[in-house]
Design goal:
Pfam family, one: Tetraspanin
Strand content: under 5%
Helix content: over 70%
Largest sheet: 2 strands, antiparallel
CATH class of one domain: Mainly Alpha
Membrane topology: Multi-pass membrane protein
Keywords: Membrane, Transmembrane, Transmembrane helix
Subcellular location: Membrane
Distance between the termini: 20 Å
CATH architecture of one domain: Orthogonal Bundle
Protein name: Tetraspanin-5
Oligomer: single chain
Strand order of the largest sheet: 1-2
Structural class: mainly alpha
CATH topology of one domain: Cd81 Antigen, Extracellular Domain, Chain: A
């Protein structure tokens, strides 16, 4: 008979197997995202270093959790409980950092000036990407139509034939291009999608923090069962 309740051990191992699969999926996602990160690095997008650390950590800790449950050793369970406690704190810190960065990015998007955007607009890859966004989001410029300089592209054209949910305004004086352009800037449109990513990350990190707390409580209960079994066995042997 094992030292740990069989049903509890099966549930514990099952969830660790799920996190092993998640760790493998995160590693695969990090590999696929590396190329995109290299392309977007010129816009200040952070690297994937922490993503790799997190993915490998999830895979390693969940594997160790399976070993600790199967071996029923108090030391291994204590180490795993330590990982859960540290992981819970780290996930809370990451969640707070993401929340702070979201607010900072929101401030940048809504308070940026055309002078700040001007160096980026010199890159042809960004101009092509922005034109595609303008056609899809019915917007013009990152901050305003003035981002395009002396000539506004046709992707900003706000004619009645391609007007969906956007509103129109006259183009600024002294600039060539369509007579009517989209009134909304693409900064608002871009941030609406970026904000979705931030909300997913917030749910991800705080969800992991709650899961780590539950894992810590279950592990502590398993350690108690192992110690109680070992103490009972020791007394029985001494009496014999």
């Amino acid at each position: 008979m094992g030292k740990i309740n069989g049903c509890l051990k099966c549930i514990f191992i099952f969830f660790n197997v799920l996190y092993m699969i998640l760790g493998c999926a995160l590693i695969y996602g990090a590999v696929r995202a590396t190329a995109l990160t290299l392309q977007m690095s010129s816009f200040g997008m952070p690297g994937l270093g922490w993503t790799w650390v997190f993915a490998i950590g999830v895979l390693g800790v969940s594997s160790f959790g399976i070993y600790a449950a199967c071996s029923e050793k108090a030391l291994a369970l204590k180490i795993f409980a330590g990982f859960m406690g540290v992981g819970m704190i780290i996930m809370m810190i990451f969640g707070i950092i993401v929340a702070v960065q979201r607010n900072q990015l929101k401030t940048i998007f809504y308070s940026a000036s055309s002078e700040l955007v001007e160096p980026y607009m010199k890159e042809q890859s960004l101009r092509d990407m922005l034109e595609a966004i303008q056609q899809t989001g019915q917007c013009c410029g990152i901050v305003s139509a003035n981002d395009w300089g002396e000539e506004i592209p046709n992707s900003c054209d706000c004619s009645s034939s391609n007007l969906g949910y956007g509103s129109c305004k006259s183009r600024p004086q002294g600039i060539r291009g369509p007579s009517k352009i989209f009134a909304q800037s693409c900064g608002d449109f871009i941030f609406s999608y970026v904000d979705i990513v931030f909300k997913i990350l917030l749910g991800f990190f705080f969800g992991f923090a709650v899961t780590a707390l539950l894992g810590l409580l279950i592990t502590i209960f398993m350690i108690h069962q192992v110690k109680r079994n070992d103490t009972g066995g020791g007394i029985a042997m001494k009496g014999y």
